[in-house]
Design brief:
532 residues; mainly alpha; Rossmann fold; 4 domains; three-stranded parallel sheet; three-stranded antiparallel sheet; 24 helices; 9% strand
Amino acid sequence: MTDAQRHDELRAAALVSKAWPYEEARKLLKRYPQGKAGAPMLFETGYGPSGLPHIGTFNEVQRTTMVRHAYAEMTGAPTRLVAFSDDMDGLRKVPDNVPNQAMLAEHLGKPLTQVPDPFGKYESFAHHNNAMLRAFLDRYGFDYEFVSSTDMYRGGAFDDALVNVLRHYQAIMDIMLPTLRKERQATYSPVLPISAKSGIVLQVPVEVIDAEAGLIRFVDEGETIEQSILSGGAKLQWKVDWAMRWVALGVDYEMAGKDLIDSVTQSSKIARALGGRPPEGFNYEMFLDEKGEKISKSKGNGLSIEQWLTYGTEESLAFYIYREPKAAKQLHIGVIPRAVDEYEQFRASYASQAVDKQLGNPVHHVHGGKVPQDALPVTFGLLLNLVGVMGADATEHQVWAYLRNYAPDASVENYPRLAGLVRNALAFNRDFIAPTLKRRAPEPNEALALTELDAQLAALPDQASAEDIQNIVYEIGKDPHYGFEALRDWFKALYETLLGAEQGPRMGSFIALYGVANSRKLIAQALEAVQA
């Protein structure tokens, strides 16, 4: 098949694929039935720079990028992704995880780009966090354009849109006031003037004096002020700001968390009142912690991207983010091993799949259609079992020695991705597995079965494969002489007596990896526990 034929087949399959990025991209085909003439399709993600980038930031940019790629596959048309920073927002509270908090407290209410950097590295707190955002997105290879709210307001790029807001001021008030409490209605204004006295973003009622000139009237510290909202004289209230931005930039697609459903609804109404069209998109479910509770930065029950990458791979994180975005999912350390192995399973099956199946394979979206073909000789779960029996002090060098029992060509040079997984496994074992492992003594019937397993392992030829060993394990477990009601009871006994865990790997693979001699030592230790 030529590249052109492959491209045509892929496009035809994408147009009917049920994978969610294609379903989202088809919304854009309906938005512009004749194609979007004269400009690329514009995707947007938003970032509030009052805090550092986190796993939620990665989540939104990754998912949006997946939809963007799906649209490009369907159409071949140009696209753009804007990462918009709301750095004109006022600092509402001092974050807990930054230095110089007393200094920050003196600047509460000021635009984030006017708040000094508590780290002392940049001209403002927002500039620091914006730099962290760009470094974060660059690190993971995202294709995006960074846009600063402050630059757009102060540079005049939003001036026409701000005038338009004043023209439709009453229509916006009619949309917003019914959604507010009585006391909030009395002080609400779509426009937030920037005080020339204090530099604070003011939450005060305003009166439109001259919409075309951008003039408003308000009270600041007891004094009635007339001020232009143009070129940085004011910013807009959140939901109005979002709608104005959609219209001013011509945003076609933006997704948001389920917690912002009301904001999307109201901002969409405002966008229409301004004469624009709200973007396509959907509301994704929020992640939950291991107790099923909503993740909250203030609770500290979330999972950072650094934590994930300590114990798992970047690709496995993207894979986990891809799966079922409209379903609530737990996000905690315990989900990482399974995510790593499921990602590898999908990756291994990709090359042999038909095109329509490839487009429904999560790795197609993780890798933007360019899925690498290399495969790993062992699963992550098997690695975890290996380092589990090796103990908390296991080293990379020792792990590679065992890996060569299983795959003679195993080396960092031949399997660079495996090198990363070895480090992940050692870290996961050190922090979470080793402290919990506890081997139990075998029951009498289990001891008999282990004795038989030891004898058959001793008789194996040197060239015995993992499959040969697995067959021995199966036959012992099925032998009624040993009294196992079901085969799973035998496997459970092996995991609990040899590995100290409730669940475990395919034992043939584990014994081949750990080595027959070492595995026999584990059996001997288990049998000694019976005698003790």
